[in-house]
Amino acid sequence: MTKSAVSRLRLSVLDQSPISEGSTLGTALRNSIDLAVLAESLGYHRYWVAEHHGSPGFGCMSPEILIGPIAAATSRIHVWSGGVMLPHYSPFKVAENFSMLASLFPGRIDLGVGRASGTGRATALSLQRDRRLPPADDFMDQLTELISYCGTEEQRRAQGMPPANLVTHERPHLWLLGSSAQSAVWAADLGLSYAFADFINAHGGEDAVTEHYREQFTPRAKQPKSETAVAVWAICAETDAEANVLASSFKMLILCLQRGDLIAVPAPQRAAQFLVEYAKRPGSLHMQRRIIVGTPEMVKSGIEAIAAEYDADEVLIVNIVYDHSARKRSYQLIASAFGLVGT
Prior knowledge:
It holds the Pfam family Bac_luciferase. The structure is a single chain. By secondary structure, this protein is of the alpha/beta class. The protein has a single domain, classed as TIM Barrel. The chain is built from 13 helices and 9 strands.
């Protein structure tokens, strides 16, 4: 990545509201608000709020509920859903929710949507109003409808959409989130900003997902040019040893998740012991996630390398750390390494 490209790179926070062992949902959500205030003071560009269901380790089930308190506690940083899992909802209701937020906090609310369920099959079924049949695979139709609701009054009228007073004139900026080549095709065809989840699928760069998105991008009035973000795991500390201790909690959580065992974020001591014992088991699964762990210099280099791999305009940094103060310190060190300028 060139020096000029690095200087243009925006850094943002992707928050999954982790719940640590022995803690509570309320504490996790308050920690998210606290981290957002810190992120703004450090100079991060955007604060993304994820959606998960039925998990003891992830606290935010409804991004639209958490976005309001975060935006109210801050004054500059963009706050958005990373993302709303659209198949669970009515596109019209999603548009209403985010139009309200955009009207309360003009120019600061972004709406990121995704296709994944954010949970297991049983919980996904519980989220459906009609459980007699599996949910329809009509994400593209839902997304097109949502774009129409967030368009101009003339566009809504032309497509027979509900009256404009049901969707206010303050409308959020739309992003499509994905971890596959298909999501890039949709984002390009519909002219949406696009965020790729490298922290879920680390092969997006070699598969040229974002390259296809940029080449095939269809401009539209509200989005005249392509915009690409990539989300990465990164845990930073003053020393490599400390960073690896912090990362043990995340590694245990993900390994358990891969085998269908949902847990809260474990303490580093327990996680380190688990990892030692786990490595001795025959046929143990390898952790199927890419993570940058280390000192500020090492993490900065890793983030820049992944950003260059995707030619991204923005990097979303996500981490899961047992101790909230250590998690905040990680974001502080990364901000300092990149020379971010806060408020």
